[in-house]
Amino acid sequence: xxxxISEENDGSYERTAEIIKNGGIAIVPTExxxxxxxxxxxxxxxxxxxxxxxxxxRKPLILMASNIEGVRVxxxxxxxxxxxxxxxxxxxxxxxxxxxxxxxxxSGGRKNLGVRIPDSEFMMNLLKEIGGPIFTTSVNVSDKxxxxxxxxxxxxDGIADVxxxxxQCKFSFESTVIDTVQFPYVIIRKGCLDVRELLKYI
Length: 202
Known about the structure:
Elements: E1 3-6, H1 12-21, E2 26-29, E3 34-39, H2 43-53, E4 62-64, H3 79-88, E5 93-98, H4 101-106, E6 112-116, H5 121-130, E7 134-138, E8 162-165, E9 176-179, E10 186-189, H6 195-198
Parallel strand pairs: 1-8, 2-8, 4-6, 5-9
Antiparallel strand pairs: 2-3, 3-7, 4-7, 5-6, 9-10
Helix pairs in contact: 1-5
């Protein structure tokens, strides 16, 4: 049975954090789109998300944290990329970094990982309550449209352990993605962050 709570309820992020830390699958609102969220150190929970979405294991999940220091154990951040991160985080930007040793262990040997620090009060409270990073991916069946409001998440009612109602996502569009593994950096996906703001950095 799926627990349904509003992000505005007292204790919403504490209850969601508890479920995630206990290995559960959460559906949470971000400022871009709704995301599945699992404990970054729980490989079993990661695999469950892949199964729920029918997602190829070739496609990595996105690491989300409340600050840059929270992801350094997972990835190596190039100095030029760090300037971009400090300029645009928290925000609607996902940066792909080379994966550190622990990151490779927890991500199935991936050589690089996408990372984002969200600009969402609920998500920041949730991440701080968890006390560490989470792995996320958009709420949808693979290659289908991402959920942008809570009604579009309900196909996963009874599958996820908790659905947090945040109404309509502020931007209702995926984050912009930049690969910073090698310079010059490459825009992988044009999302809701204006690319013109990024060009001077890449």
